[in-house]
Amino acid sequence: MTPHNLKDWTRARLRDWFSEHNERPFRADQVFTWLYQKNVSDWDGMSNLAKSTRQLLIDNFHLPRLTRVAERVSQDDSRKYLLGLQDGKTIETVLMPHHDHHTVCVSSQVGCAMGCSFCVTGKMGLIRNLSAGEIVEQVVEARRDATGLPLRNIVFMGMGEPFHNYDQVMTALEILTDEYGFNFSQRRVTVSTSGLVPQIRRFGQERVKANLAISLNGSSDTVRGRLMPVNKRYNLAQLVQVCQEFPLEARKRITFEYILLKGITDSIDDAKSLIRLLHGVKFKINLIPFNAAPDSEYQRSDWEQIQRFQRYLLDRGVVATLRISKGQDIQGACGQLRSEQGLAVEEEVG
Ligand code: SAH
Ligand code: SF4
Fold this sequence. Notes:
Blueprint: E1 4-5, H1 11-20, H2 26-37, H3 51-60, E2 61-62, E3 67-73, E4 79-84, E5 90-97, E6 102-105, E7 109-111, H4 120-124, E8 126-129, H5 132-143, E9 151-156, H6 166-177, E10 189-193, H7 197-203, E11 211-215, H8 221-227, H9 230-233, H10 236-245, E12 254-260, H11 268-277, E13 283-289, H12 303-315, E14 320-322
The structure holds S-adenosyl-L-homocysteine (SAH) and iron/sulfur cluster (SF4).
The site of iron/sulfur cluster has 11 residues, from helix 4.
């Protein structure tokens, strides 16, 4: 029998499994604490488990790790990792320091099928989904470097469309927020989607209440349809409706990410229609100045225009933040994640 990857399993599933194997379910709690709180990566380190229990685990599970293929450190201390999966494919993960904590940006797929025209990951196409364990392990890896400041926030804004890999992402969320697992606060985990309407609806019914972010990037179907093919499947009216109906906890809002592309999304008319469009939704806007890739057809908006756009929203009572992308010098910023075996291995650190 092929052993299971233990990192793919939730604690509830492991508790059931222990029961079926005539072991006490709380062994699962102990295993989770070793793996995710004490950072133990082998069975021998799990010293409060009986030898027979450990043997049972050895016979049935493996504990694969991701390999660090390359790592780059930005001038702002962000770190981008190229991590190797068991089948030799690679993904990228970014660790970002903030004033009192770290944030990790994780990937949910190798590549992405959504094909947004401004996004480097989109150009790769979808290679495969990640398993829950491969998502969770990115956090384990990044946490090793999150010294000084605690690793407190997770954003699913790396490679891939999380809602295109829905079940594995939900399993990963459960492990990451489990009190015996990483114990991340649900308020500090954000899942970003390009706008898959049925999955957004389903996400609203999940037990784990992570934050929802939606990549809007255009305020009319014409512009958004040109930038994001998904808009042809689920147009803005459908997207806005599911957001209006989305069950939000008190004081929570949906975040709309909005890329500022020179001459395409950054006019005051665009800002106006953005406000009109989101009427009836509890939202905030995260403005993202476009990070240009070498062969991109788009340009970043001028700084004055970025500020004018933000000011227009703020003056009308809209919560609008500006995302100053971290790690731009190492191509670790939004939309710059592309795993290629050739990633400057000469710049490899550690
Ligand atoms: N696939 C998901 C999550 C990953 S993309 C999604 O699209 O929401 C994370 C964010 O990066 C998205 O909001 C996307 O709009 C933004 N992004 C992609 N390419 C970018 C680029 N070149 N410059 C700035 N932001 C970009
Ligand atoms: Fe995929 Fe998000 Fe990039 Fe679109 S922006 S191609 S959904 S990763």
